[in-house]
Structure formats: structure tokens, C-alpha cells
Fold each of these.
Amino acid sequence: KAGVTQTPRYLIKTRGQQVTLSCSPISGHRSVSWYQQTPGQGLQFLFEYFSETQRNKGNFPGRFSGRQFSNSRSEMNVSTLELGDSALYLCASSFVLSGSTEQYFGPGTRLTVT
Amino acid sequence: GENVEQHPSTLSVQEGDSAVIKCTYSDSASNYFPWYKQELGKRPQLIIDIRSNVGEKKDQRIAVTLNKTAKHFSLHITETQPEDSAVYFCAAMGGGGNKLTFGTGTQLKVEL
């Protein structure tokens, strides 16, 4: 099976702009979670989508939002970008059946805000 | 919410020695504990995991132990090799949904 894919891989934006990142999970996986990775804060949970519904949300401001489509592909959006939003954004997919909870990460999108 | 502490932050061992990384968690409802390995510039890779109904799990040179009473879990790597050099993250999950709370990571360096 193909792994988790994310597009774009690299992105440079200016403060105040908005950005949309995309994640395609492993075929058959219905749960997609998003994480932000920075040197200072480590790996932090943003939100999780399952069957097109947000099931969990982390402690991030409302500027961070997401959605999931019927084919399980997910997007996250960050509006009014700040310098501190520069990070590696990782998505992870999970099968979620019979207690299976393993999460497999995509390669990430490296966002730089200038 | 859940809080995961990880120690040490850096670990240097000689090739062939063992390495141990320890984590503690705060939420007694957590029931799934994965470990990820992240090489520089690459994605975190799931290397082993353990569920709360199991005390120990092994996979070749790596093993994980879980002490639910003390809320501790540890990663053990035996016969370390240079390719084991990476950042290792522990994580905990529980309480519904797929939210992983990560430790702060351990930079493991295996020296020749």
C-alpha cells in the first residue's frame, strides 16, 4: 500500500496570509490526525478527523482549522499566519478498527512564515 | 489533559551497548503507548508499541516495558548500531479518539 502523502512538501508564506495543507491517508484508513512539530514545543496535536467529523481538538487558536472529505483525504488551514506558525506540519493516518490505533505519519509540510 | 515526560534528552552510547529511554505519563486512562524514531529530515516512524493490557513487548533488538501502577514505560535497545542514531519519541493515547501526547524526545547517538 502507498504510504501517507502530504502536499506541498515546502511552503513559504508571508505574515497575514493563509495556507492550506493537504494529506492523503493510507488506503482504507479513515482517521487523519494533524500535528505541529517545532524545535521549541516538540510534537503537538492539532486535531483529528474521522468519517468527515472532527473528533478531537488540541489547544491551538481558531486560526487553525481542518476538514475531511468523503474519501478520507484531509486538509488543514491556517489563517492570518504568524511568524510562530513556522513549523513542520505532520499528518498521521490510522485504520481505527477493533482497537487498532497505530498512527503512520506522512513526510510533512515544512511551512516557513516570513 | 495528558502529560508525558521523557528522559534523558540526549543519550550517547558505544556501538554494541544497550540504550534505555524512560517516559512517564499522567492520565491513568491512557491505554496505548507507541514509540517513534525520527531521523534528521524524515518523518516519525513507528518502531514499537504497547497496550495497557501487556507488560512487555519485544521485536528483535527493541523492547518496551510498561508499569501501569507507576505510569512508567521504557524503550530498550540492545546491541546498538550506528543506524540507531536518531531522535526517539514516546507517546501516550487514551480517553477516546486518536490524540497522541508526545514526550519531548531523546537524541540517541551511537558512537563507533
Note: The mean pLDDT of chain A is 94.
Amino acid sequence: ILNVEQSPQSLHVQEGDSTNFTCSFPSSNFYALHWYRWETAKSPEALFVMTLNGDEKKKGRISATLNTKEGYSYLYIKGSQPEDSATYLCASNNAGNMLTFGGGTRLMVKP
Amino acid sequence: GAGVSQSPSNKVTEKGKDVELRCDPISGHTALYWYRQSLGQGLEFLIYFQGNSAPDKSGLPSDRFSAERTGGSVSTLTIQRTQQEDSAVYLCASSLDWARNTEAFFGQGTRLTVV
């Protein structure tokens, strides 16, 4: 089983702050890195699927970067809003095999 | 339906009883996962089905857990002789094809409580 780690485990920010968190994953036999957003009482929903080194994806105020050589990805949220409060999960797909999830970063945005 | 459907949404069972959890993936999705989230923990991988290949059962925590996927579609996760530590939210996800690196779609989960 792969080792996918996320940091920090939890994060409190004020509304309007920009924030970022990290996902580290094995770089060997890399296929794809996924980011999901998991709101309380809902099921996880995909934000990004990234495959290429140097890839950068953006959806509204959320963006992500990928470094496959060193095995890390950053998720950025610009101008956090209370509705951004959720757990953000990353998952690595290595060797075209199953997805292995990290423990998540729980983000709480205070109004 | 259009999404991944899981049933039941909630299940309370007595310790020692068997339970069956059901997952209906999105039609045409060849990959299907079961995960669980225990209180305060992250997503724990249980089992993975990909097409007609033998399932990856490496995440099943004990031989009380088993899963099958009939006809490449519906999957059932069975827990025999449930224990209190089995209490968790069990999530199912499906994807079109892992080789194409498409996103996973999750069901709403089954909250299992063993009393």
C-alpha cells in the first residue's frame, strides 16, 4: 500500500485569507494525482485529476500544481470563503492501479 | 440514477450479526472501490474491482469482510459477526477506467453502527 501524506491535518483561516496545503506521494510508477473536496454530510467530489509534471489546474478560486519528479502537489485557495470549509483529499494512482488516499486536510474558514 | 447509489444509508446492527452493504455504480464504470471512514480517521481502502480482473482485497481488515461484484456492476460488501470497531461510514466509488485517469464518483455512503 502506497504512502500518501497530506499536511497540515487541519487549518483554520479567516474569510478572505488565501491558503494552501500539501500532498506528497510516491513518484515511482506515477499515473495520476487526484484532489477531492469532501463536505460534511456529503460524499467526496473530484476537483482535479492531474497527470503531467508541471501541470497546473484551476477551478474558480481553487488551483493545484503537480511535481511528479519529487512527488508533491499543492492545492491553493484564493480568498477563502466559509463555503470552502471542507476536508480536501488527495489520492495517488501509481502503476495504473488503485487510488490511495491521504488522510486529508480539514479546512475551516471563519466568517 | 445518474450517480453512485448505496444502500442502506444507515444501518444499526447488534454485535455478532452479519450485514450486507450494497453499491450500484454508474453504468459503464469498470472500476469500483470500497472505502471506509472510522470516526476521526481518513479514508481507508478496503477492496478494488477493475473489470474482469481479480479484485484487490489487500485492504480488507479481517476475514470477516468480503465483497463481490456481480456482472461487473452491483457490488455487495458483507461483514460477518460484526464488531464495534466495524462502526464507520462505508463509501463506494466508481470510475470509468483507471487507465484513463478519470475521476472517481462516490456514493453517499452507508453509516454502520454496531451496538
Note: Chain B touches chain A through 25 residues (CB under 8 Å).
